[in-house]
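Q: Protein A?
A:
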Amino acid sequence: MTSEADASEGSTAEKVEVRGIVEKDILDEMKTSYLNYSMSVIVGRALPDARDGLKPVHRRILHSMNESGMVHGKPYKKSARIVGDVLGKYHPHGDSAVYDALVRMAQPFSLRYPLVDGQGNFGSVDGDSAAAMRYTESRTARFAMEMLEDIDKDTVDMLDNYDGSLKEPSVLPSRAPNLLINGSSGIAVGMATNMPPHNLNEVVDGVVEYMGDPSIDTLALMKHVKAPDFPTGGIVYGTLGVYEAYDTGRGKVTIRAKAEIEEKEGEKNRIVVTEIPYMVNKSNMLQKIAELVKAKVFEGISDIRDESDKDGLRVVFELKRDAIPEVVLNQLYKHSDLQTTFGIINLAIVDGQPKVLNLSEIIGCFVDHRRDVVRRRTEFDLNKAKERLHLVQGLIIALDNIDEVVKLIRGSRDADSAREGLQESFELSELQAKAILDMRLQKLTSLEGDNVRNEGEELKATISDLQGILDSKERLDGIIVDELLELKEKYGDERRTDIEENAEEIDLEDLIMERDILVTITNTGYIKRIDLDTYKTQNRGGKGLRGMGFKEEDWVVDMFVCSTHDYILFFTSRGRVFWLKGYSLPSGSRHSRGKPIINLLPNLDDDEEVRAHIKITDFDVDKYLMFATRKGTVKRTSLESYSRPRSTGIKAILLNDGDELIGTSLCDDTDEVVLATAGGMANRFRVADVRAMGRNATGVRGMRLKDKNDLVVSMAVIPGSDQQAEENGDEDEMEEAQNDDSPVDPESGGPILLSITENGFGKRAYAYNYRLTKRGSAGVINIHRDYIEETGKVVRVLVERPDSEVLLISQNGMVIRTSCDCIRLVNRAGKGVIVMRLEEKDKVMGVALVDKLEGEDDACDMEEGDGVPGAKEKGDTSEEAADTGPGK
């Protein structure tokens, strides 16, 4: 028995191998198959492309109609013929799916700007279905031709159809931002899209505004794209949901029917509805209202009449004599489909992946697509013009040498020998020689010869113009804008859907919830905001949350909590200041990098950099801003002078030629300022020594530079340091510190200045060691000139914060992070210690103070007498590295 069983198993195995059967776990197979099916539905059927706003079936219908000549201006064709062409050529699915998509594109109550011009019964707002496809006729609408324009100029990629026999477009060139103006809806596997239609005039204005300023925020865009504009009219009630949808990609918009109360003396009052919410079935709505009247939910209604006709919709609600019309209307809004909610989900396919998009991102996808289309179209026209010019130049050569050409051709045995003879005799290409042989005799006339030469000159001008478009982003964008404005002129119309504010929604900014957010800024200039609720409070011993994942050369240089209504002021090297509200900063997750600050600030010059940022809750008249420039100029201006924001920025300080802003900081009369130069000098003086001046002033001398090649590299503000020392009774000790190069006794406390040089040296010294001088003086020695050659020039001087760490990055991208406590306290003129060991010719490029990570221990690995940190990178343990100054 055993041998028989073994033999049976062996034969089975042989059969399995021969038949090519592969054993698989059914659970794994179901998972894989369902995932493949899901992605096929998401990408290939249910969701629109962000570029042309079409699903594959709609795109295939329009392309097939265009190919077959069923276009605007030509006779209508049976819808059944169109459906058959689409099924046979591009869309191998059910005919009902294709016809339903065709019908919806022809319904003026479904699409704001219909793409199909239908003849026959294509359904109604009452929910009546369209007639069978054998009875209706169709052709593309005039507007749809704008979607197909230039498709024959290699403007989009063409893909194989389902059987590889034909080519179909992966996307339409689409001059119109169809995704916004017509919207879309669809249900995929595990996700859905529901995008409302908009008014073409508003969308075009929004796109043009975006192209002028890609960093434009949602509120600014909403000055143009105010709210959805539905083909059935109605009222958008309240704009909070609109803002949320435009800002995040998801939101709920309340839509009300447009109703009027008619009051006549001696007669019953009535409510007349002339427009209903989008996608509401009128017949079903009236039936449900009638049932509610019978159920005495609406006790004030005596009769309901549908008086709609070919001139428009009209529904009349007759009221009882004792009924209050306003109360009944509010009841209708509350309990019937006269008020509905449109849940916006801006989900579309971007680069082959489903993505939820805000308003700015939707416009950005369309603009990028149009730039690609116009560029490819221009390249196509340029190549055609060059090819034609090549042939024309050959014809001109032939005309200039007509006798020799005729003689050569007559003396040739056949066409091939004539072509070869022309190529050799006149150095022509094969194409030029063929064109000469194909030239008609009428070209030999004087007039035709002049026409050929004129054509050559026109082609050269055309080629120059087309090349200029490809070489200039401004010209290319200008063409896109001109085409959009042309669309607006041809198809633009007034809004159909009114916008009505809630009593509580007077100012849109007031609708934005005031909540705390966490703002992070990296050394490479990326910024983002995170809701503070993301970081939940944890008990001691918790693991915490993973922060954002950066590239190796990125780190957070500033992190602060502010309100969504707070201002963030950004100061640039050119002396300009820009404002951003907290809510206008890009929202991100804990793991995202955010967006570059320079992309959020309009009109920045190429070499203009953001040098400082300050959070402002209110523009306090008692607060000031202190500015410092490379050449030692300082300026103090009341914070109130910057209380009138402008999105394009304003002048913060007037700079002299060749000068630039290096730092800006908040201060008051009790503070002190330290200016530090690259050559190792530092000047400490009182803020009160700098008189307050206007916003457009240049400022006054803050520090005299002894060396004409020296520059101020850093400004640090010390909060009320000398007053604090006096209050602590340390006047004698402070005076001694100001007149002696020895360090202050550590027990006296006080602010500490941290200096970092380009060769990786660092030092800490009490601020009181730097003698308090007057504004405009040369200051005192920060790093002795004897050490500058070894340490390199000063890069940054900072006021140390408790429990802070210092981050250094070099030109070669090396990064080190170490606790400030690991850097020895030395006297004012000391050299300091090596903080970062650099490779040859490498220099420290950036320095930042960051808060110590929670739960992180200091690990300096410092030996006795050594001042070299080893917390994150092993330092130098040599005696020279621990040198503390000339008096050692």
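Q: Protein B?
A:
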Amino acid sequence: MTFIIEEDDVLIHYGVLRRSGRYPWGSGGTVVSRSTSFLGMVEDLKKQGFSESEIARSLKIGRTDRNGNFQPSSTDLRALKTIAKEKKKQADTNMALRLKETKGWSTNAIAERMGMPESTIRGLLKNPLAAEQSILHHVSDMLRAEVDSQGLLDIGAGIEYHVGVSETRIKTAIAMLKEEGYVTHNVQVPQLGTNQKTTLKVLAPAGTTYRDIVSDPSKIGSISKHSDDGGRSFLGLKPPENLSSKRLKIVYAEDGGGKEDGVMYLRRGVDDLSLGGKNYAQVRIQVDGTHYLKGMAMYRDDLPKGTDVVFNTSKSNSGNKLDALKELKRNPDGTIDTDNPFGAVIKPGGQKGVLNVVNEEGDWDKWSKSLSSQMLSKQPESLAKAQLDARFKERKTELDEINSLTNPVVRKALLDKFADSADSSAVHLKAASLPGQRTQVILPMNSMRETEIYAPNFKDGTRVALIRYPHGGTFEIPELTVNNRNPTAKKIMGQAQDAVGINHKVAERLSGADFDGDTVLVIPNNNKSVKSSSALEALKGFDARTAYPKYEGMPKLDDRGKQRLMGEVSNLITDMTLQGAHHDEIARAVKHSMVVIDAEKHELDWRQSARDQGINKLKETYQGKHSTGRLKGASTIISRAQSTAYVNERKPRSASKGGPVDPKTGKLVYEETGKKYIVTTVSKKTGKTTTKEVPSTMKVKALSNVDDAYKLTSGGSKKNPGTIMEGIYADHSNRMKDLANNARLASLKTPSIKRSPTAAVVYKPEVDSLKAKLETALKNAPLERKAQVVGNAIVRIKVEANPDLSSGDLKKIKGQALVEARVRVGAKKVPVVIEPREWEAIQAHAVSQNMLSKILNNTDIEHVKALATPRQRTVMTDAKMTRARLMLARGVPQSDIAAALGVPVSTVHEALF
């Protein structure tokens, strides 16, 4: 058989190893002769000036994509050359052995007979066993057995570290299996917890199609050993231990329970109620196998005899304890959902006796400390500008430091990551934190005055402002004085790492916060930089539950609807505040927000609330109305920034077309995928059916989709932004985008590096250590891909069983499923930790660019920044540490310890906890 390369009218023999058709192994001859002729053919084409890509296209070496188009592959060509060379080498070895052992020929005679140098013959005869038992054959045998037993096999990046051979040999072994008829496909599965997708390369038996795999990707197996979990539940929760209601006391509203709503006190020293050395935790406790407690758990030493848990609630006594609790989540068939009975993500290792821990002491301290536009835009323009300027200065200084780095690979990696984060900052509009501010969980301390707060992370006597989200305005900001001497608070909360104690009336001012895990931003405010105003008179005494109770037959609001309505009313309050709405009008919108936020949980009549508060009229006044009569919605840059915009489906423009970065401006550039789908419509009048193709679209953040942030202001231009505050935020967004573009331009201009052989010798121990760490980190890659597949299978099963899951519940299930899937497959990210001496090796170019790029993709980039741009840090000496521990043991607040040692509170906190 022949085929023609039309460009040069050259006739080439068909025999190129395996091919589909009548003659799968060529047109005749032995495997060796075919291998030899194939190598000769490739060499001839190469001499004629053909590139590897052109040779692959000419010999039809490659694969057919899902659309039936042939894609040549120079990688497959190189793999086939390796196979052919291996077969020829093995055949040469066998022939040399026969001539030596059966005919007794000398190495010189064998060399003359085979047309090879005598040194080559000696090499063949020296270790024939190694040639006969090639690593390639061992690897291909292993992969074949895995596919035959599992059906589908993940063979993506990182598997070479599990198999223990080079990436090249893995690819060659896969090519050998493809020669036998096995097939490979690239498939995408969604990542849990993100909007991205994970691409898997799958090895499958002959005849397996792309559609066969994507129809059920959960069947994709992994080379890493995986054993089933012995019958554990899908989401990895052990069956929760049960608390008998006989051990439980309820403090109802009429007994003062509403003052500590959501708090449960535990008896100290009871094994199944141990907080494990923590002072407080956000937990769920199953009661009598049908209900559960939800809230913050703390120890208390004065519990009634025979009672191990005291739960506080704002509900009234119905005569049945269980009525004050929540029912365990149930499946549509009425059975209890044993996989996720609490509708919450329980942290890994969080099942301790009857306690199921969601968050515990120390977790809240890790939350973000920046200032959101929702809060700051309602403050004076001077404060907003100062904090946005501070954030810009921080980022500009960071970019300057990165540009000053001498290692180009490190510089490029940090520039790329900086550009991504600067783009994000341009959209999210978060400002720099104020000095000393921290996120803290609130606990009830009704022994405190309404003007005081127990806050061991702040200096006694400090004036602080409290902010809670969602944030209505300055009228929801209480100002309190730190009192860390309160004996009750000290006994119950101790040296709380990330909690504050407040009177229940303060919580009411914080837009109706309760004590089941709500958090506040605590900001030192001695200089009155954060402005507060009196509580709105119209809100005093307003109770959404009594004002808008449900009625018979009232449509129920689901979680998705609640989230949409909360977004609308939050945007309305923001837009009204920026445009100077009267307090009475704002009070109407805030009342409605209080109804909406509880509408799903307590089945409130939010529709009547919208009518009574005139919400549509407020929207028309402060957000506008289309000519069609439809309300416009969000009207300022603050409310529009993160709203959803729809664009034709796109992807980063390929490098061959001038992307993905514009070399002149540094902006990201995209190209549309051209994907379309069919829309079918049926005329109500004629019954006629029509179809049309429309472009596929995708969601993006509105502010990320405009070059000039002023386009999203209520005025629409820099000349007229609508309000002064909008101009401040638009300026900030634009300059953050400029920083991102400048970082990308700098990245484009960054040269590559060459490895220094001399440095590699000097730093050999460090290079070897980095290699070992990198291999360990990369071993997790196939396991993480498998975890995504398993996690998606878990979620699909849950959704099929519960098709009406709310968006909130679905998000929690996705998080829990990914945690459990990682446990099942053994996926655990082990980042490369770069030691100082190893950093020296990197700076000396002892590590290749390729290896360094992989290290930077698998390490803590913040640690790299610290190594690359070292800063002077306040250090706790051994003597200071000893003194700090002694003071802490005596109950001295952290703020006082910091003052005594002359260091910041944050330094004391980091050193002690």
